[in-house]
Amino acid sequence: MSILNNRPGLEAVINDVAEVTGYLWQKGWAERNGGNITVNVTEFADASWATMPAIAPVKQIGMVLPYLKGKYFYAKGTGKRMRDLAKQPMQNGSIIRICDDCSSYEIIADEPVMPTSELPSHLALQNYLLETGSQYKATLHTHPIELVAMSHIQRFLKGDEMTRVLWSMIPETLAFAPLGIGIVPYGLPGSVELAEATLEQIKTHDVVLWEKHGTVAVGQDIMDAFDQTDVLCKAANIYMCARSMGSEPDGMTEEAMKEVQDVFKLPKQRPC
Ligand code: 13P
Ligand code: ZN
Predict the structure, then answer these.
(1) Which of 128, 170, 201, 255 lies 20 to 30 angstroms, CA to CA, from 49?
(2) Cα-based angle 74, 193, 185 (whole degrees, multiple of 5)
């Protein structure tokens, strides 16, 4: 029996995850097992969850994350394909419980599917979201082609250059990603160092770009985290299309961008 049974709210969240993983595959952002997701599902936990036995040995996270004590997350399984998850989310991911030491976790449902290798990054962000009282529940790592391609070009990695170029492609980018994209220099996938660097960047940006690897986004739900990534990747795609027509695109002027910022009263800090 699945933990989703008789829990329509939880089932709806997992169905949203499955829908988004289908989009990731269709967009070409999810080759093989590329990308991963976590969603905080603690709001659906009733008293029975606390006594559910672990179905796999306790594993270390590699970090101490005090705000995650006793919290529950859905996590994509390591090595699992997004396109398989789209069809069978509970066979390609699992629900984990963070142990009382705040540095380890155990799987409680449905099957002993080991969580993603990028769990340190996802849980570091989840810890930060809870610490700051954010309503955001979802984290998404994926491999969006155009953004990863731009991360191979040094000039885009310096300061806010990538954000400036992306914002200037279409007003919606600035409107929906007003904090822009933060850059994390290349780091070993799955490492605690990568997680720590990602955490620093997400504090001041909508989406984080891992140099020569992929993006990490947070959102109220998984659809929101997907949209954040999609908005920025669309701008990168427009930039590349213009370049392939033979010249550097003009981009919106500084004045036009300032006008959008002012008229739409865009936030300059991460809202909770
Ligand atoms: P997992 O299969 O462990 O989730 O890894 C995929 C990935 O994109 C690593 O960065
Ligand atoms: Zn990856």
Answers:
(1) 128
(2) 105
